[in-house]
Design goal:
Glutaredoxin; 2 domains; 6-stranded mixed sheet; two-stranded antiparallel ribbon; 8 strands; coiled coil; DUF899_thioredox
């Protein structure tokens, strides 16, 4: 197929994706929020409750991260780091993982991460939110919460997996002949990240 023909076809697919995203936003606006508990998390500086993570916002984005052992979760966090300042101008934001706070702090410092991290170790948070697999392993993803007075509700969530919309690297690789190619092998693809 000629270059111009392929470009036209790809542009049409991108318009379709944009239309689907609009339908997803419209559908999300109809959701009946799910009430959740005010979970406690551990940080390097002590305990913190879910309600405290909102800061001055009524919305909170919580990333379900599998921890330092997952290179895909690290890849996602490395890519997110640069936009953190923009995200927190609109909503609260935190990454949660099963790692202990000391491990989280050391790993975040080694990567230059600027966003807050809390540990859900010992709590039912990940399981209650659906981010523990049937075999008991952790699953990656994102949940969005809303605070209205004392009440906290979850208004949306989705899992993360290689090729998803939440890691920009996949979209750049999509533009290359051969897509991802042998990158997963070169990057020592882990078995930790299955689709949600």
């Amino acid at each position: 197929m000629k270059y111009a023909d392929v470009n036209g076809k790809l542009a049409d697919y991108r318009r379709q994706i944009s239309d689907i995203r609009e339908k997803m936003r419209e559908t999300l606006a109809t959701v009946e929020p799910e009430k959740v508990n005010d979970y406690a998390f551990a940080t390097f500086d002590g305990s913190v409750r879910l309600s405290e993570l909102f800061g001055d916002h009524e919305d909170l984005i919580v990333i379900h991260n599998m921890g330092a052992a997952c290179s895909y979760c690290t890849l996602w966090a490395d890519g997110y780091n640069g936009i953190h300042q923009h995200v927190v101008s609109r909503a609260g934001f935190v990454v949660t993982s099963p790692d202990r706070p000391g491990v989280q702090k050391k790993f975040a410092e080694s990567r230059g991460w600027k966003f807050p991290i809390v540990s859900h170790e010992g709590s039912s948070f990940a399981a209650d939110m659906g981010y523990v697999s049937h075999s008991g392993g952790w699953l990656p993803g994102v949940s969005v919460f809303r605070r209205d007075g004392e009440a906290i509700t979850r208004v949306s969530d989705t899992g993360f997996s290689p090729g998803d919309d939440f890691c920009s690297l996949w979209h750049f690789f999509d533009m290359l002949p051969g897509g991802v190619g042998d990158w997963p092998r070169v990057a020592k693809k882990p078995s930790c990240c299955s689709s949600h």
